[in-house]
Amino acid sequence: MALRNLRRLQQLNIAYFKQYSSVSKLVSLTVDDKTGVSVLSLQRPPVNSLNLELLSDIHNALTEAEKNKSRGVILTSQKDGVFSAGLDIMEMYKPDQDRIKTFWTTLQDCWIKLYGCLYPTVAVINGHSPAGGCLLAMSCEYRIMQTNYTIGLNETLLGIVAPPWFISTMKNLIGHRESELALTQGKLFTSDEALKIGLVDEIMHSKDEGIKKANAFMAKFAKISPITRSLTKQSVRGPTIQDMIKNRQADLEHFLQFTNNPQVQQSLGMYLEMLKKKGGK
Amino acid sequence: MALRNLRRLQQLNIAYFKQYSSVSKLVSLTVDDKTGVSVLSLQRPPVNSLNLELLSDIHNALTEAEKNKSRGVILTSQKDGVFSAGLDIMEMYKPDQDRIKTFWTTLQDCWIKLYGCLYPTVAVINGHSPAGGCLLAMSCEYRIMQTNYTIGLNETLLGIVAPPWFISTMKNLIGHRESELALTQGKLFTSDEALKIGLVDEIMHSKDEGIKKANAFMAKFAKISPITRSLTKQSVRGPTIQDMIKNRQADLEHFLQFTNNPQVQQSLGMYLEMLKKKGGK
Amino acid sequence: MALRNLRRLQQLNIAYFKQYSSVSKLVSLTVDDKTGVSVLSLQRPPVNSLNLELLSDIHNALTEAEKNKSRGVILTSQKDGVFSAGLDIMEMYKPDQDRIKTFWTTLQDCWIKLYGCLYPTVAVINGHSPAGGCLLAMSCEYRIMQTNYTIGLNETLLGIVAPPWFISTMKNLIGHRESELALTQGKLFTSDEALKIGLVDEIMHSKDEGIKKANAFMAKFAKISPITRSLTKQSVRGPTIQDMIKNRQADLEHFLQFTNNPQVQQSLGMYLEMLKKKGGK
Known about the structure:
Chains A, B, C: GO terms for molecular function: delta(3)-delta(2)-enoyl-CoA isomerase activity. Chains A, B, C: Pfam families: ECH_1. Chains A, B, C: Homotrimer. Chains A, B, C: InterPro entries: ClpP/crotonase-like_dom_sf, Enoyl-CoA_hydra/iso. Chains A, B, C: Its main location: mitochondrion. 3 copies of one chain form a homotrimer. The first copy, chain A, is of the alpha/beta class. Chain A has one domain (10-218, 226-278): 2-enoyl-CoA Hydratase, Chain A, domain 1. In chain A, 55% of the residues lie in helices and 15% in strands. Chain A is built from 10 helices and 10 strands. In chain A, the strands form 2 sheets. Chain A has a 6-stranded mixed beta sheet with strand order 1-2-3-5-7-10, with helices on both faces. A 4-stranded mixed beta sheet of chain A has the order 4-6-8-9. In chain A, helix 1 (2-19) packs across helix 3, helix 3 (97-116) packs across helix 9 and helix 5 crosses helix 8. Chain A is globular. The termini of chain A are far apart. The interface between B and C is medium-sized, with 19 and 21 residues.
């Protein structure tokens, strides 16, 4: 039965990737003909919650940017205010068991792709960026963040334990000490706080300014062989990625065990009820 | 014979833990009914040297704090002036072979417990904190240190090589570079120097002020599920602890080989003679 | 055949080490009788390119300093202007297959020796220090750099991927984040920039001033047992060295595959042609 499930999962996987093999309405990918740099915009209103379809689309857009030989990719939100609110809780609440497996493996694939992708990547963070949104931003090579928003792996605050590869991504960026403090508190940093500890690299006052700064970062690689650059990046980030790949099955099982826990389901239900009352999604 | 020794060691272990299964006169554990936070005070005059009994008592008090559901533990010295002078040299000088094994495994157990314990921990360092004292402080999650005292892993200065897990604990806190500089020099940092490199987090001018600051740190977890928090902490610190556990037998043997070296015994003898002449313990 | 090649390589290795078993004209090793500290000067004009002979000589001089019981070694360039230009490209261009193997294993040996050597080491960087020159400097325990020169692992800029142990050496010094930024850009830092991120520890305005500062660093170990110090250093740096030793055969094969690639040979040819036209070596 395990084998049959696996096959069904694979078929499902293939189906999803076929379905979203071209860039879809949940993201847009626009190449700047002058610079050769692509802008990948998240556009799943209202808050770019990362559901299966959005994650697939990000994955496919990152692949598309390889194929169209983009010189780099700028990841941003189509709409100011929220970069991404993180994983879509609807994927975890009373989930279909096949879909939730595909959801998590797609998140894993998306991170592997983004964290290891060949071209330079910059996050232009034009809004709040908690949890999974922070993971996406941290997985880029450079971060420019708009003032008056917050960023952080605040999973703890939501009763969720950030997976080990979320933690490794943060440790690589801000070190062991700051990661422990941030993660145990589920801390959301203001842009200034984030700048101070190196969670972001620059501050912007508008998305336009951010895109300009992102292009200035990309320009630093103008005289560098893209192949050499990407092999060097893989050599720096490789151990973290290999470690995740080695443990990805256990990571999936851990996630399924967590979400299928009745108490967790009850908490998610109450949380969603509260969101509804607030008038949000 | 090895087996017989092992059994004897285990019996000894059990005996010690029974003997100190309740919190003893070498430490006190006081719960603040208003905050739910416990204060664990070291009170082995004159300098809180870490002998087998004190280490057992710390271990037991940390377990007791789990049982009484403390919201956190503040580790401090009952008397201003010395937080802890580190390992008691008397445990290493002409040692009984059974006792010295229990001594070292109890130190290992104590670190495993403190470094991985479920509730938040803060060291209120109201005096000097060299060697093993520094290890205890570094193993907490947050450090507040009184001005005009010193802290550091100064083992090198005493002719001792800090064990790998002392080194890992320091690397996790202040990084590889600063750890190498500190360890090769056996450097003792003033509180201001320690603050600058992140070896401590805050400065205090009195123990009362330190306790207040420690409680302010604890309060940051007020809205966080203790289970989620502790699993997150374990995920961050887990690899370091697992690495130590994997190597603890080799670590014990290494320590025994070192202390049973005749030259080391001679040095310890001269050192103790010098201390006696000085009028200290 | 593989075995025959290995034997030939070993014989060649032995021959080389015999040939340079005493300190040669490519380096000088001078012990200061007052301080007991040796100065190891690189003197292969014009730019101390690291060819097989220079690397062997450095290796032998480091061994010689052990034998003559130097209290420490200061690594510097005999002539101001260039500390070392890095690996000699002539070793990689149309190479003899036996020699290039010996070249790379000698570089590996030289790093293992320098990174793990028992006495304290200081680089007095009295000139530019790119690529392999930066590796040598980073492998010392302390770095003092003259103003108006540059330092960095700029391999990427030259179309070369820095080997994993170059990257580990840098990560240990300046952390994961700064290393990634520096390596993907092939960045050369001014002395002030290098000071800011911790790639060097102090600035000097002349070699004399640098030697004085280096001796001041050495003096910090005056009261420390050399054996304890060296065991502590090995405990801090050991994991990085062991990791390299475990992978050194794969590292050699990777280097040979890279240099024997026809496109790489063509690039090296064009680069050397350009250097000739410039009038440099």
